[in-house]
Design a protein that fits this description.
Layout (H helix, E strand, L loop, with lengths): L9 H16 L6 H36 L3 E6 L7 E7 L1 E8 L4 E8 L5
Antiparallel strand pairs: 1-2, 3-4
Helix pairs in contact: 1-2
Length: 116
């Protein structure tokens, strides 16, 4: 599943699923009763598709944001150690990776490639 699990509003999913359902019927008779039956199939599939797209867009935005970073800092504000700035790196490229269903954030620092 993509990062954007709740990016897509329920009403938008419902409407998009209904439009897809009507398109799939291709002129066959439809009714609210038939939609009530088919909705259980169409809405989850539409949500998954739209969330995947939203996640792809979010990932592209993150990559673009990451590309402009030239300084990386880690600031410790925890109550026990609270050391403040614990790591600073300049002229680095940054790549973020969310793992474990979004519960783990890994940051990869790489040597920044200088464009000619």
């Amino acid at each position: 599943m993509a990062d954007g699990s709740r990016y897509v509003a329920d009403a938008a999913v419902e409407r998009a699923a209904r439009v897809e359902w009507e398109f799939d019927l291709d002129g066959a008779p439809n009714s609210d009763e038939r939609w009530a039956t088919d909705r259980a199939e169409y809405v989850p599939a539409m949500r998954a598709g739209l969330e995947a797209v939203a996640g792809d867009i979010a990932a592209a935005v993150r990559r673009e944001e990451d590309a402009s970073v030239i300084r990386f800092e880690v600031i410790d504000h925890t109550p026990t150690t609270g050391e403040g700035r614990v790591l600073v790196r300049y002229d680095v490229a940054v790549e973020r990776s969310y793992q474990d269903a979004g519960r783990t954030l890994k940051v990869f620092l790489k040597e920044r490639e200088i464009s000619p």
